[in-house]
Design goal:
By secondary structure, the protein is of the alpha/beta class. It has 16 helices and 23 strands. Bound molecules: NADP nicotinamide-adenine-dinucleotide phosphate and magnesium ion. The site of NADP nicotinamide-adenine-dinucleotide phosphate (NAP) has 27 residues, from helix 8 and helix 9.
C-alpha cells in the first residue's frame, strides 16, 4: 500500500469512528429524538457507523436555517463572482480530499474504488466547477412587447428559494453535488436528505462546503429515512422546490406531497433503457460498451442499458461475446484494485435483484450468471437473460442490478423498432449502434427518451441536459437548463 493510501485509510477509519450528527445552520447537532441508525459496508455486510436519524422536527430546524439564510443571509445577495469563487474552491477541496472521499464512498456504497475516484470525486469536482461558471452567466433578457404603447420590459431570473434535495444510494456524492452545485450557483439555499444506505460522503461534503466558505445555513444535511425525514421535507411549507433522484414510485409520492404549497418539483427517476445494435455496427466496440453499460457500478445506474436489441444476423455472436465478457469480470470488493465488479448496495437490493432474475428466467433463457457470489457481502453475478417476451417483467421493470435482458430483431423498419424501444413506461436513455448516420439520426428522433447516445457507452456530461421523458421524470439536470431549474422568471414592464 502506498503512503497516500495508508493516509486515506487512517482518515476514513477516524471519520467512521466519529459521532455523526446533523449539519444545521453551520453547526453539528444531535437529532431532536436522539436516535441513530446503522450503515454497512456492502463488501462485508458489516456495520461501519451509526448515523443520526433525523426526523420531521430536525427537518423543521434545517428548513428554518435554510430559509433564514435565504431571506436574510448573504448568499443570494452576494455577487455572482463571489459565489463562483467559493464554488471553485469547493471543487478544489473535493479533489484535495479525493483519496479519502473515494475510499469513504467505496466503504459505504460498495463500488469499485476506481469508479468512486472517477465518477464520485472527479464528477463532483467537475460539477461544482461547471456550475460555478454559470453563477456569473445566468440572467434575464430585454423583450419588445406586443400590446402597443411604449415600454421597457425585461425578465429577471431569480433564485427559487429553499431547495429540498433528496438523493439515492447509487452515486451518493455525485448526486448530492449535482443538486447542490446548481442551487448554490444561482443563490438558493439547500436542505439535503441523503439515502439512508449511503449518508457518509454527504456529511463529509458538508464540512468541505463550510471549509470553502459557504455561509452557515446555506447547505444543511439531515440524515434519516425517506419515510419520515424525506416525507417531512417534501411536505414542508417553507421549501420552494424539491429536486429528487430515485425510484418512480417515490417520485409520485413526492409529487403528491408537494401540492400543499405547490412547491416546484424536478425528478430524475428510473429507466429501462434500450440499446439497439444494427447489423453494420462495430461489434467489438458495441460488446465492450454494452457490457460496460449494464455492469458498470454493478448495474445500479438509472441510465443503465438494460434492454438489448441486436440484429438477428449478429445476435448469436454478440450474445456469446457478451456472455464471455460477463464471465470474465472479477467479482470482488471495491477496495481491491483487481476487482472489476463490486457488490450491490444492500442485502435488500441483493435480494430484490435475485428475485427479479429468478422470475425473469421463466419463459426466457438464462445465458450466464443469475446467482449470488460468496456468502458474505451483497454480490450478484453479472447476468444475461435472453428472449424474454416484450411484456415480461424482466423487459419492463427496472432491475437496478447487473442484469441484461437481450433480444433480437430482423427488420429494417425504424417505426417497428421504435415501437419496441418505446414499449416502456420509462424514457431516460437510449443507445444506438450503427455506422449509417441517416439511420442514427432518424432513429434518435423516433425514440422517446431524454438522451440518445450513438456509438458510445451510457454516460452523462455536466454540460448536456439530462432527464426523462414519460415516467423517467420531470425537468432536466446539467447544462443551462439544469441551472435554470433552480430559478424562476419575473417579468418587469415599465410604461415609458
Ligand atoms: P428510493 O426509495 O426512491 O430512494 C431515493 C431517496 O428517496 C432516498 O433518499 C430515500 O430515502 C428517499 N425517500 C424514500 N421514500 C420517500 C418519501 N416518501 N418521501 C421523500 N423521500 C423518500 O429508492 P430506493 O428504495 O433506494 O431504491 C429502490 C429502487 O429505486 C431501486 O431498485 C431502483 O430501481 C430505483 N432507483 C433509481 C435511482 C435512479 O437514479 N433513478 C436511484 C436509486 C434507486 P431512503 O434512503 O430512506 O429510502
Ligand atoms: Mg427506499
Amino acid at each position: 500500500m502506498t503512503t497516500s493510501q495508508n493516509d486515506a485509510n487512517a482518515k476514513v477509519d477516524a471519520f467512521l469512528k466519529r459521532r455523526h450528527q446533523l449539519f444545521i445552520g453551520g453547526q453539528w447537532v444531535d437529532p431532536v429524538e436522539g436516535e441513530t441508525f446503522p450503515v454497512y459496508d456492502p463488501a462485508l455486510g458489516q456495520e461501519i457507523a451509526q448515523v443520526a436519524k433525523g426526523k420531521a422536527a430536525d427537518i423543521d430546524k434545517a428548513v428554518a436555517a435554510a430559509s433564514r439564510a435565504f431571506e436574510s443571509g448573504p448568499w443570494p445577495k452576494m455577487s455572482p463572482s463571489e459565489r463562483a469563487r467559493i464554488l471553485f474552491r469547493v471543487a478544489d477541496l473535493i479533489e484535495q480530499y479525493g483519496d479519502e472521499l473515494a475510499l469513504l464512498e467505496t466503504r459505504n456504497q460498495g463500488k469499485l474504488l476506481a469508479i468512486a475516484r472517477f465518477a464520485e470525486v472527479g464528477g463532483s469536482a467537475e460539477h461544482f466547477r461547471y456550475m460555478a461558471g454559470w453563477a456569473t452567466k445566468v440572467g434575464g433578457e430585454t423583450i419588445p412587447m406586443n400590446g402597443g404603447g411604449d415600454w421597457h420590459a425585461y425578465t429577471l431570473r431569480e433564485p427559487i428559494g429553499v431547495v429540498g434535495a433528496i438523493t439515492p444510494w447509487n452515486f451518493p456524492l455525485s448526486m448530492a453535488s449535482q443538486k447542490i452545485a446548481p442551487a448554490l450557483a444561482v443563490g438558493c439555499t439547500v436542505v439535503l436528505k441523503p439515502a439512508e444506505n449511503t449518508p457518509l460522503t454527504a456529511l463529509r461534503l458538508a464540512e468541505i462546503l463550510q471549509e470553502a466558505g459557504v455561509p452557515d445555513g446555506v447547505v444543511n444535511v439531515v440524515t434519516g429515512f425517506g419515510s419520515d425525514a424525506g416525507a417531512a421535507l417534501t411536505a414542508h411549507p417553507l421549501v420552494d422546490k424539491i429536486t429528487f433522484t430515485g425510484s418512480t414510485a417515490v417520485g409520485k409520492t413526492i409529487v403528491h406531497a408537494a401540492t400543499g404549497n405547490m412547491k416546484k418539483v424536478s425528478l430524475e427517476l428510473g429507466g429501462k433503457s434500450p440499446v439497439f445494435v444494427f447489423a453494420d455496427a462495430d461489434i467489438d466496440k458495441a460488446v465492450e460498451a454494452v457490457a460496460g453499460g449494464i455492469f458498470f457500478n454493478s448495474g445500479q445506474v438509472c441510465a443503465a442499458g438494460s434492454r438489448l436489441y441486436v440484429h438477428a444476423s449478429i445476435y448469436d455472436n454478440m450474445l456469446k461475446a457478451l456472455a464471455g465478457a460477463a464471465q470474465s469480470l472479477k467479482v470482488g470488493p471495491g477496495v481491491d484494485p483487481t476487482s472489476q465488479i463490486g457488490p450491490l448496495v444492500s442485502a435488500k437490493q441483493q435480494a430484490a435483484v435475485l428475485a427479479m432474475i429468478e422470475e425473469g428466467t421463466h419463459g426466457a433463457d438464462l445465458i450466464t450468471g443469475g446467482k449470488r457470489v460468496g456468502d458474505t457481502g451483497y454480490y450478484v453475478e453479472p447476468t444475461i437473460i435472453a428472449n424474454a417476451g416484450p411484456q415480461s417483467k424482466i423487459m419492463q421493470d427496472e432491475v437496478f442490478g447487473p442484469v441484461l435482458a437481450a433480444n433480437s430483431f430482423d427488420t429494417d423498419d425504424l417505426d417497428v423498432l421504435a415501437r419496441e424501444a418505446n414499449n416502456s413506461i420509462y424514457g431516460l436513455f437510449a443507445n444506438i449502434w450503427t455506422k449509417d448516420v441517416s439511420v442514427a439520426h432518424q432513429f434518435a428522433r423516433k425514440i422517446k427518451s431524454g438522451t440518445v447516445r450513438v456509438n458510445a457507452m451510457v454516460g452523462l456530461d455536466n454540460a448536456l441536459p439530462f432527464g426523462g421523458y414519460k415516467q423517467s421524470g420531470w425537468g432536466r439536470e446539467s447544462g443551462r437548463v439544469g441551472v435554470e431549474e433552480f430559478t424562476q422568471v419575473k417579468s418587469v414592464a415599465i410604461q415609458l
